[in-house]
Batch of 2 targets.
Target 1
Amino acid sequence: MIENKNILIFDTTLRDGEQSPGASMNTSEKIQIAQQLERLNVDIIEAGFAAASPGDFDAISQIAKTIKNSSICSLARAIDGDIKAAGEAVAFANKKRIHTFIATSPIHMQYKLKMSTDEVIKRAVHAVEYAKTFVDDVEFSLEDAGRSELPFMKEITQAVIEAGAKTINLPDTVGYRLPSEIKHMVQEMVSFIDSMKSDAIVSLHNHNDLGFAVANTLAGIEAGAGQVECTINGLGERAGNAAMEEIVMTLKTRQDLFPGITTNINTKEIYQASKMVANITGIEPQPNKSIVGKNAFAHESGIHQDGVLKHQETYEIMKPEDIGIEKNNSIVLGKHSGRAAFKDTLSHLGFDDLDNEALISAFEKFKAICDKKKEITDDDIRMIVTDEKLNNNKTFEITSVQISDCSNGVPSAVVTIKHEDKEITDAGIGDGAMDAIFKTIDRITGYNGTLINYKVNSVTEGKDALAKVNCQVIFNDDKQAVLGHGLSLDTMIASARAYVGALNSYLSIQNMLNNK
Ligand code: KIV
Ligand code: ZN
């Protein structure tokens, strides 16, 4: 049994997580998530894949300049151009890593790479050596390790460790393996690396195609892995990656099975991280999701409620407070609260990094909402501030939206937008109220948007709940869709804000590309 060991947490929400359909984020969204990952005390943040696009490169380099404690990592294929981009993107980080990979399974080598095993080893060794010219800390992944053959895995591992790799990652890329198999693979690889007298760490990166990502990760920890790769809310390619909150809370809750196995994660930041990732990507965890789902701590049956009231541990193996859920997420502020109380609540919720302008703007939004909504909860405040941060680019700003009665006649909208200190008003018609709003926004701004995804959620319960809209829009037939976020007590206004937010995001990306 492995005892007394600190497991490194490598978060890949911003890279593999972003590969979830519909989860692509812009730079300011990624910076916000990176800051929250730093509050969580994540050891390594995989901030993106620098060679994938100028947007990815920009996000990684800005994160590298912003984050002080966590190590910042970029993914790179075992190709010089990728490694150079990765090295340049992380150059300004306090702590930096390049994560390079090549596939090692027979099926990938034969059909995808069309390379012999010798060629794969040669490419891997060159990649590690080249990465070492940019950073000291190089991680090497045997892509599709889950379906690779152990003798070849050992051969390539020996070669890349000799070339300077410090972490050997064994991804179960297609989520094929079961815990007993992962345990065996890790045991074999750990004892092989020990036999080399190397202190390289074995890392796991499990996908969830058969639902075993977290179980496989825990089995790997039992077998001696020293690092685990995971994402917030289990976001990730296809069925996702192992969920960080589940791994960390299992290790904490089952110390009887994992004695002295710790992580550096500040678990009280888990709920905030989950909410932030859901708000930014628009991908909410399912209600019954472990640890962070809406129902994870909700006891419906009277017997359970009675038991928990008498003694919390009768039906609860963890406390909601352990992951940062306040005992009761109820009224925290009201319409008479001043800016000092508002600021105090923000700092208690972990938002101490708002600049003065953002604070004033968030406070104004809060006051406007207070006029119409009796009870303002922690979740409302979280959303107000997240919305303020997400919409800090105000090239275009919705001032007002009026829609006609849609039950009779042609739906129409009158929209006023602020742009460069001028207010522009126009009216338009559409196939529904929302369509009329979006078409009118297009007319005013001169950009042509195609809505490809639209989601509305309520922040809390009740008729006066805030509506939170996430949409994905393609502007002017661009290849890349952009995300927009809107918040309001009125769904139509939230939708208009989300659409304009997406346009602002599109414009800042265009701006960045033009300045390259
Ligand atoms: O799943 C996978 O194999 C990956 C690698 C690039 C690490 O994401
Ligand atoms: Zn992956």
Target 2
Amino acid sequence: MDPQDGLYIVMISVHGLVRGERLELGRDPDTGGQVKYVVELARALAAHPGVARVDLLTRRVQDPKVDAAYAAPEEALAPGARIVRLECGPRRYLRKEVLWPYLTSFADHAVQHIRRVGHVPDIVHTHYADAGHVGVRLCGVLGAPHFHTGHSLGRVKRERLLAQGLAPETIESRYNISRRIEAEEQTMDSAALVIASTRQEVEKQYQRYDNYGPDRMEVIPPGVDLSRFRPPARHTPRPAIQREVDRFLARPEKPMILALSRPDERKNIGTLLRAFGENAALRAQANLVLVVGNRDDLKAMDRGAQSVLQELLYLVDRYDLYGHVAYPKRHAADDVPELYRLAARRRGVFVNPALTEPFGLTLIEAASSGLPIVATNDGGPRDILANCRNGLLIDPLDATAVGAALLDALSDRRRWQAWARAGLRGARGHYAWASHVERYLKAARRIVGTRQRRRLWAERKSRLPSCDRAIVCDVDHTLTGDRRATQELFARLERFPGNIGFGVATGRNLQSVLAVLKQWKVPRPDVLITSVGSEIHYGPKLIKDAIWEQRISYRWNRDRVVRTLRGTPGLLLQEAETQRPHKVSYYIDPEKAPSIEALIQRLRKNDLHVNVIESSGQFLDVLPVRASKGLAVRDFVLKWGLPLDRVLVVGQSGNDRDMLTGNTLAVVVGNHSAELEGLRGHPLVHFAERPHAWGILEGLEHYGFLEATPRAAADEADAGAGEAALPEDAEGAAERAAAG
Ligand code: GLC
């Protein structure tokens, strides 16, 4: 992809069932407005000439209970736009509240996808807290700007549930709400731009967050697919859904009050029914049509939906609304535009009595179908009515007032017509996706658009997605030690026209190695393998690889290691700051201490399976059995899909040993410590004559690493090594490294 072609945008919306056609909106609480929003936004962005490609990343679901479409790894949405489905935990469909443990793995798959594309996105745009969490990691690793749309917010939800009398523990266990709020805080910290749908969302909702930053927020109302939502034409055949509706009604031709929502307590359908049931004049004048999701067997629905529908049936009976109220059992996504048109043809209104309405997409759909609206006096409807001037606002808690407003809205024919026309105009002017995209890209240009900004982001971007080779160096006495050599090395790398990933692998912890690199004016690495391979950090934001940490925790018991080795002669614990969760470090006096083999044996007898590594004849590190610099390098190389023979590794002392053996191209600098002598003659280990970074430069030369294809040089070295007999010691070292 050529940046000249336009922006590469990666959108992430993890949960729910996401596909391009026949969206199953309302099928469950996770498949609703957000799914529609992201699919339509992806299409609309891709249609803009300033955008080259949009990838919408979502969770791949392989589950016989849902359609097979959700298992397809890719689905085209439009030219330049596609859905990409990534693994995320178990294969089966899961509700969003339980996805948290799998999001790190989703982020890793996203990295791999971007690596396949070979281009760091110009924008990573995440939707909802779960994707926000993924975005924090992804943007941290890639150095890409993070855009975010919350859709709804955890703090607001928690307050609402508390107000409803739910116990904090119940809220916690049912919704994992603190996890969500923490993810939202981190997202707001990371985001360069937060897109809200209404002013009120910014002022009343986002403001509850510690990382609230109004200057990074932009109000851009969502678009509506106006080609689907248009006013009724004069002579059109009856839509199929009409029969479904009319079979409930004694006099179907009366004005139709339409409500359309998920069967959710907060949509406040009960108050609407009471308003209708208690107002005789309204009942005489109009029918009420409640389209509240699809159902087969009420008893098979989730608790919330069940209780909403039970109340509905009860109230119909209680007010004897038979023949006046329709509540169709099923409808398809394609029936929805027909429902608005049917209500418009019958000179009805659309009503949204939700307790709160931050957004109100259905109101815009109604407006764009020429149907006036009556809606809750809250952020979304307030903005929409200010733009469209096509109806009335109501207090959703006051059933009598709701009834009166509905009657009022239906009573004046001329005003009704003026509303219908104003709604059409307002929807087109304010809520077309094309105008959303214009405003979106205008905001985006501020962040990534100007040449200066582009350069800034380019500097921060990771090289890893597009590099075809990488260098990983030990730090002390390898990268450092001779200032002129260090300078020369990076000048040489800078002159290389291609993209080389750069990493360091060190015994130091993150803070301490960052300080050293700064002192030595070493450019910020794309990957930092620290604390002898027990920690890996990626990208400009130094995002810690949590999966690596989990993986190496296998059979690790830090306290028992310390207890077992306590009092061993010749071993002295190092300073506190060098001790890490997965690394216990000692100073060793080889004269007084038992042999490494004896130490390992002692630990094994205590059922401790660990890696014991001696360096420079003075340090001793005990690590989990699955942690070492070499294993960390392999994890990094695998993650980014680099061939091992395109990875040059450089070391100097004992903790580098296992990193230097294997199929990477290895260099040992001239000033190496004695522990590495055993590697001499080993295939693909070059012993440089010169010390420090001079040795690295020599190694680059030796392997022809900066030539068009370093491969040839590696083959040569391989062939050469095959002919020469391996010295005894080298073979032993190779085996030991392989076993460790
Ligand atoms: C660094 C670390 C130290 C470790 C040594 C060898 O000096 O600070 O804790 O023992 O490297 O890996």
